[in-house]
């Protein structure tokens, strides 16, 4: 980003460029000859440029001081008077200086020239132009700075909110699996021992992705395969699962997305040998499709849909297409969009 100071000091050079363009047009259309123009502007161009640089410098620091004392939002009327006073004061000093130079012979002046009449107009016009441009540039710079600050605050807020969702899911994950382990200990010690080994590798994955907002589909599938194996270990013939994901292993997905959906499926549906729960995860065309046969538990507590809400909020914070949830022909379907790497 170009600083205020560099931008503002372009102004005098642009002003001189405009003057040179005007002179060139006068020569081109025959209003003045080249010799006449050289005679008039040979000594005035340098004076004009120096005067413009000095004026812009004074106005730049004056506007900075004005902004600290009274900005346009808090007191526009007083600020307008301050700007007007600056223009009039500086213009009077300029007029006094030019008259002094002419009267003491430092600058030649032709009485027939129209410059005498313009002497009291041009400083006001030029000072007004300079001040307006400086105010405009500094206002744009301030607006850009505020926009960057707002964007940074929004980013920090999103990161904090997203981190809170991740931590919430991690705790949920730990609590549920400890509950599973507790039930397995009383059923079969051998199963419990294998469960602990598998669970330790799964939770290692949870710890590794704790600082990541996205993981590859391949990583998430490896994790969910081990995770589903634990449930298969527990429910045996009462639970079946199938994974068929192709051509999207390198795409990205929020971590623990599939774990939330698996938990919801097992939590809200009956799992038994007579009515096995069948879960499928298929992938392709930039999305994962998770299906399970819909057989809700009887007398179960109403679903709070907390897992779905967290998942949708996660995707919203990432600025991606939101997941879809639907029930078709006694099959519960979830469509999870994938994010291009």
Task: Provide key terms for this protein.
341 residues; alpha+beta; five-stranded mixed β-sheet; two-stranded antiparallel ribbon; 7 strands
Distance between the termini: 29 Å
Q: Strand-and-helix sequence, N→C?
A: HHHHHHHHEHEEHEEHEE
> How many beta-strand segments?
7
- Quote the average pLDDT: 77
User: Treating each run of at least 4 consecutive H or I residues as one helix, how many helices?
Assistant: 11
Shape: rod-shaped
Element layout with pairings:
Elements: H1 4-8, H2 10-28, H3 34-41, H4 44-69, H5 76-103, H6 115-118, H7 122-187, H8 189-208, E1 215-216, H9 217-235, E2 239-245, E3 252-253, H10 257-268, E4 277-284, E5 287-293, H11 306-318, E6 324-328, E7 331-337
Parallel strand pairs: 2-4
Antiparallel strand pairs: 1-3, 4-5, 5-7, 6-7
Overview of the molecule:
The protein is α+β, with helices and mostly antiparallel strands and 341 residues long. The chain is 65% helix and 11% strand. It is built from eleven helices and seven strands. The strands form two sheets. A five-stranded mixed β-sheet has the order 2-4-5-7-6, with helices on one face. α7 (122-187) runs antiparallel to α8 and α8 (189-208) packs antiparallel against α9 (217-235). The chain is rod-shaped. The relative contact order is 0.07.
């Amino acid at each position: 980003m170009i600083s205020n100071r560099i931008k503002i000091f372009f102004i005098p050079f642009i002003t001189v460029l405009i003057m040179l363009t005007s002179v060139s047009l006068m020569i081109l259309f025959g209003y003045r000859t080249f010799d006449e123009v050289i005679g008039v502007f040979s000594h005035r161009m340098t004076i004009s440029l120096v005067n413009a640089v000095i004026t812009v410098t004074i106005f730049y620091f004056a506007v900075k001081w004005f902004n600290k004392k009274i900005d346009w939002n808090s007191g526009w009327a007083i600020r307008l008077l301050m700007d007007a006073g600056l223009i009039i004061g500086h213009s009077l000093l300029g007029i006094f200086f030019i008259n002094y130079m002419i009267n003491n012979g430092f600058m030649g002046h032709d009485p027939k020239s129209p410059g005498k009449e313009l002497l009291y107009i041009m400083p006001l016009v030029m000072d007004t132009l300079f001040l307006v441009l400086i105010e405009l540039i500094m206002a744009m710079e301030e607006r850009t700075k505020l926009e960057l600050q707002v964007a940074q605050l929004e980013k920090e807020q999103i990161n904090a909110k997203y981190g809170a969702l991740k931590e919430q899911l991690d705790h949920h994950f730990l609590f549920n699996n400890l509950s599973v382990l507790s039930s397995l200990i009383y059923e079969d010690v051998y199963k419990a021992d294998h469960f602990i080994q598998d669970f330790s590798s799964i939770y290692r994955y949870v710890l590794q992705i704790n600082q990541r907002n996205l993981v590859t589909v391949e990583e998430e599938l490896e994790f969910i395969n081990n995770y589903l194996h634990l449930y298969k270990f527990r429910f045996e013939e009462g639970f079946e699962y199938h994974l068929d994901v192709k051509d999207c292993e390198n795409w990205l997905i929020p971590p623990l997305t599939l774990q939330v959906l698996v938990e919801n499926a097992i939590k809200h549906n009956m799992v038994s040998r007579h009515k096995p729960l069948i879960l499928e995860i298929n992938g392709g065309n930039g999305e994962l499709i998770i299906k399970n046969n819909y057989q809700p538990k009887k007398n179960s507590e109403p679903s709070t849909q907390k897992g779905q809400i967290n998942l949708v909020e996660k995707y919203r914070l990432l600025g991606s297409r939101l997941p879809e949830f639907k029930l078709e022909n006694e099959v519960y379907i979830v469509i999870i969009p994938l994010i291009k790497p």
